[in-house]
Write a structure and sequence with these properties.
By secondary structure, the chain is mainly alpha-helical. The protein is built from 20 helices and 4 strands.
């Protein structure tokens, strides 16, 4: 298994120190798509506001750190190590590389940008695949980036490419049967609430990269089901959950958005809300959803204990003192982060026969419930704020107008020779792909639509706003703002 998991990159590693997997990691870290993540929103954009909050780059670095800690813990146990080997192998460099790369495809403005760009791609540009951040990541490393030794993409090993496939299927058709057709589909394979007929809500591959997915997954066919993550993908996915659950709470405590009064009332009022509304009602709705969708993991006692633990450590601990920038306040944040990271990493386990909505590597029962409650606090008391909603509506407008302006430019017969060179190249790349896949009459429309999506998804938050200013005539600085083109 270890030999066949190596791909073309091994052929180009002669004379270089380290394994092909470490070379993969170094290529990802050197990619301009990775550097770009410093300017891409995690939840709110820090640019120009003086906010010390995570961006996609710092998030990716933390995911890599957590993922490597999980690998070291699991492989230190002989029984877990043996099971990991039977399931296809677990290499720390593979996991770290996939963790660094997992958000390369995120567009400007975080998850809000992902939803808006998907809708525009399907409804305005006519792309059946739409847009999905994970699928865009896979497209970047296999097709768009040019830092590999040959052809397009980064020429990564099969192991690293497979480890990026959190949702190893396309939106509609592969594999057959498609996971969305299951009575109980795997996590992410069901339809999105706002697009029930569009196919799976989450997927990791557009049809244009399907051959790459099949090749990357081929070494694992004998040990994994067609819908299952590799163990290295599962570790990256689990590390992503852990990092997300912790550091967004840190961010919004620092900026004073996460207030203890409301959080305390919701968590303390949950038991009294089991039969009605009021404080605790939203948390009760979360409990009911978990029980209905994830009965394989849900446990009444574990949920109650998770609520108590989060209330004690978050509300009565971290949030009890307002963040004032002092060394004591920074120490409290650091200790909260380290304590919870160690607890959650310590609860990760590997199992031989997981249920369909789980993976071979997963959080233990107590930690699974704790992550659910930590994420709930962030979603309920940050993401549902009206001021954040108005901010995000503005970002959605930027993306909508930008996609429209670029589409109009591509449709202009007179200005075609003056297209931005990168946009022109992306059209040519997509045209060559679609020419092998679809009837000739559809090639140009699909190629232009995919090129616009690729172009917009490669921008930072700041670049997206600056480019729209250029294209709408709002910027007078021709030789500065226009450089984003």
């Amino acid at each position: 298994m270890r030999t066949v998991r190596r791909s073309r990159a091994a052929e180009f590693s002669a004379g270089r120190a380290g394994s092909p997997f470490r070379i993969d990691r170094d290529r990802i870290a050197a990619s301009p798509f990775f550097a770009r993540l410093a300017g891409v929103t995690q939840v709110v954009s820090p640019t120009g506001h003086g906010l010390l909050v995570h961006n996609r780059l710092t998030h990716s670095l933390q995911v890599a750190q957590v993922a490597r800690a999980i690998v070291e813990r699991l492989t230190a146990d002989p029984a877990s190590r043996a099971l990991l080997e039977r399931l296809g192998g677990c290499d720390a460099d593979v996991v770290e590389a996939a963790s660094l790369a997992h958000d390369l495809g995120h567009p400007p403005f975080g998850h809000l940008g992902e939803k808006v760009l998907d809708r525009l791609a399907r409804e305005e540009l006519g792309l059946p695949d739409g847009f999905e951040g994970n699928a865009q990541t896979f497209r970047i490393v296999t097709t768009i980036d040019l830092h590999g030794p040959a052809g397009g993409g980064l020429d990564l090993t099969a192991a690293v490419r497979a480890a990026l496939l959190k949702y190893p299927w396309t939106r509609r058709t592969h594999p057959d049967p498609h996971p969305s057709t299951a009575v109980l589909p795997p996590r992410g394979a069901g339809p999105a609430p706002d697009a029930p007929r569009a196919g799976s809500a989450k997927f990791c591959c557009y049809d244009t990269e399907l051959d790459e997915l099949i090749e990357a997954r081929r070494p694992f066919k004998a040990v994994l089901g067609p819908w299952q993550q590799t163990v290295e993908a599962a570790i990256m996915d689990t590390a992503d959950d852990i990092a997300y659950a912790i550091h967004d709470l840190e961010d919004f405590h620092r900026v004073g958005v996460l207030q203890p009064t409301g959080v305390a009332a919701e968590l303390a009022g949950w038991r009294g809300a089991r039969g009605g509304g009021g404080a605790g009602a939203d948390l009760e709705r979360l409990r009911q959803r978990l029980r209905a969708k994830d009965g394989w993991a849900y446990d009444d006692d574990a949920f109650a204990e998770a609520v108590d633990r989060v209330r004690e450590d978050l509300v009565e601990g971290l949030l009890a003192r307002a963040f004032d920038g002092s060394m004591a306040a920074e120490r409290a944040v650091a200790e909260f982060s380290a304590r919870w990271t160690a607890r959650l990493v310590g609860g990760v386990e590997v199992v031989p026969d997981p249920p369909v909505r789980s993976a071979h590597v997963r959080l233990g029962t107590a930690q699974w419930h704790e992550v659910a409650v930590l994420k709930f606090v962030h979603q309920r008391f940050v993401l549902r704020r009206p001021d954040l909603a108005s901010y995000q509506r503005g970002q959605a407008t930027v993306l909508s107008e930008l996609v429209g302006a670029l589409g109009d430019w591509l449709d202009s017969e007179d200005d075609g020779p003056r297209l931005p060179p990168r946009l022109h190249d992306l059209v040519e790349l997509a045209r060559a792909q679609y020419a092998r896949m679809v009837p000739r009459r559809d090639v140009e429309r699909l190629a232009r639509g995919r090129a616009v999506v690729d172009y917009v998804a490669s921008l930072t938050d700041g670049q997206a706003g600056a480019l729209l200013d250029v294209l709408t005539g709002r910027s007078p600085r021709i030789w500065t703002d226009a450089a984003v083109l």
